[in-house]
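Structure tokens please, single chain.
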Amino acid sequence: MNGFSPGLLALVALGGAAGSVLRYSVGLWCTAWLGTALPWGTLAVNVIGSGLIGILGGAMLGGLPLPNELRLLAITGFLGGFTTFSAFSLDVGVLWARSPAWGIGYLLATVLLGLGAFALCFTLARRF
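Here you go.
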């Protein structure tokens, strides 16, 4: 299978659906057990997803042969649906392994630009 084949897209969709359902379930569980003082569900999926992608990313960089189909199902699909923060964590980690300066630059750019875009759009949307 190659790039945009229906089979590969189906794997990403299947994994994404499962990850999204689990993210929703974790959110409900966290709210029931921990309340709403903090977004516990978001924190939980970000930490869990980052840990899982750390295991997979580290194993792949260490030489584990992970077939493209499994990578698309598990990483792009499932973890992408579960939390996009996990993908961000992997990107920072891979860049850091290549060059710590690039890793730090990407981390800072993503956080600062992301929060800046949020603040601008949030402010504009509240005015309209």
